Amino acid sequence: MSTPALHEAISKTFDVGWVRKQFPSLQLKVDGQPVAFLDGPAGTQVPRQVMDAVQKYFLEANANTYGAFLTSRRTNEMIANARAAMADLFNCAPEEVVFGQNMTTITLGLARAIGRELESGDEILLTILDHDANYSPWRALEEKGVVIRTVDIRESDCTLDLDDLKSKLNSKTKFVAVGYASNIVGTINPIAEITKLAHAAGAMIYVDAVHYAPHGPIDVKALDCDFLVCSSYKFFGPHMGTLYGKKKHLEEFKPYKVRPATDSIPECWETGTQVHELIAGIHAAVEYIAELGRRCDSSVRDRRTALLAAYRSTVAYERALVTKLIAGLLEIPGLQFFGITDPQRFGERCSTVSFRLPKGTPTDAATFLGERGIFTWDGNFYALNLTERLGVEKLGGALRVGLVHYDTAEEVDRLLAGLNDFLRS
Questions:
Q1: d(Cα 165, Cα 150) in Å, to the nearest integer?
Q2: For residue 69, what are the CA distances in angstroms to 65, 82, 275?
């Protein structure tokens, strides 16, 4: 699809011009060239609303919680409001929302707490497709005799092998840990189906939605997952993590904490003093997405429906961009592409792609592009099992391009031109 035709197709419901005005960092230049931030999977840029919320907290509410004075009360209120905002994003109750340093730290802490209840011979099912933050924390429980089993992929399209998953579920399986979307190849896993399979076997499920959160709506009630975790710096917020846990599970498991800390959920799972200014930023990030939704659909009446309206528009916009990107990549002779390439199946992937070029290393290509203001990423992206499985770990991994809704068709054109320039250099 040509760039003008692409614009015509998506501009009817999505105003990328307004979106880009919300992100001050998009004005950055490298040697006079505007920066194309195509590195969203490693962390998105943040809108002005998030920056303002962090500053406002420092100016008007900077204090610890539960003090007998104004700024402390404001901090309590701010945290409650942020919890309610994340509850709308997850579609859960505010008391089921836990804040933490990041997804990795949250997962390490929760896995350790869950490990208290496991016995030697109990099994946990993991996957080759996952980021290591949803692998190593669970594998560490091998020291108590827990058996770790790993689900393979279909290498042809880098999708999870559900037949292999089914064959490895049994009465000893206590937990299934799986990613919502791959941070390398963009595969979106059928979480609702996997949850049903896990529950039928008597196991609980832990979903890593870090990479999925900027690309699609989350509904933990519909998924029926037991836990789901994401990081706000991947969906236009600050560097923190957020956990959803079913109330009964947050009450059932015993967190590691200091004695004076409350035993009430969800606070008992939030170790130490939280980074309050960043929690204010999380609230603002959710509000930014909701504001986008209201612009896309003026009929929405509450924050949850506004969030869903935003995702309806951004999913369609990103789908158009990644369709253009993949078509251009597949025209490059000798390029090795990882993941789904059939446009009829793009509902099974998000707008993240990885590949290897017939010349140089991924680092060489990323450096060449970066000097021209085109920011991509190279390596294994902490999804070590997958790069080893694909046979590229010892070769420097892959080059990754991650599109989000502030990226443009013109930036895709710049990237494709830059890749061809690299191959000719």
A1: 8
A2: 10, 20, 19
This prediction has a pTM of 0.95
Short-list 213, 219, 207, CA closest to 178: 207
Phi, psi for residue 232 in degrees, rounded to 5: -70, -20
Q: How confident is the model at residue 1 (pLDDT cuts 50, 70, 90)?
A: very low
Task: Say if residues 406 and 20 touch (Cβ distance below 8 Å).
Answer: yes
pLDDT at 8: 52
Sorted by sequence, the CB contacts under 8 Å of residue 387 that are 6+ apart come out as 184, 380, 381, 393, 397, 398
Whether omega for the bond prior to residue 217 falls within 30 degrees of 0, making it cis, is no
Which residue has 């290897």 as its token pair? 356
* Residues 6+ positions from 109 with CB-CB distance below 8 Å: 100, 255, 256, 269, 271
Q: What are phi and psi of 355, to 5 degrees?
A: -160, 170
- Bridge partners of residue 243, in order along the sequence: 98, 229
CB atoms within 10 A of CB 371: 12
Give the single-character DSSP code of 270: S
Tokens 């104004």, residue located: 70
Q: State which amino acid sits at residue 219.
A: D
Q: Note the residue count of the chain.
A: 425
Tell me the longest C-alpha to C-alpha distance in the chain: 68
pLDDT at residue 93 is higher than 90: yes
* Percent of the chain residues topping a pLDDT of 70: 97
Pairing of strands 123-127, 173-179: parallel
d(CA 348, CA 216): 11
Looking up tokens 């929760």, which residue turns up? Answer: 110
Contact (CB, 8 A) for 232 and 54: no
Each residue's pLDDT tens digit, 301-335: 999 999 999 999 999 999 999 999 999 999 999 99
DSSP assignments along 68-91, one per residue: SSHHHHHHHHHHHHHHHHHHHHHT
- DSSP single-letter state for residue 45: -
Q: In sequence order, which residues have a C-beta less than 8 Å from that of residue 145 and are 6 or more positions away? A: 119, 120, 121, 122
Q: What is the DSSP letter of 117?
A: T
Q: CA-based angle 154:38:101, to the nearest 5?
A: 80
Token pair 């253009």 is found at 324
Q: What are phi and psi of 293, to 5 degrees?
A: -60, -40
Which pairing describes strands 227-231 and 204-208: parallel, antiparallel, or unpaired?
A: parallel
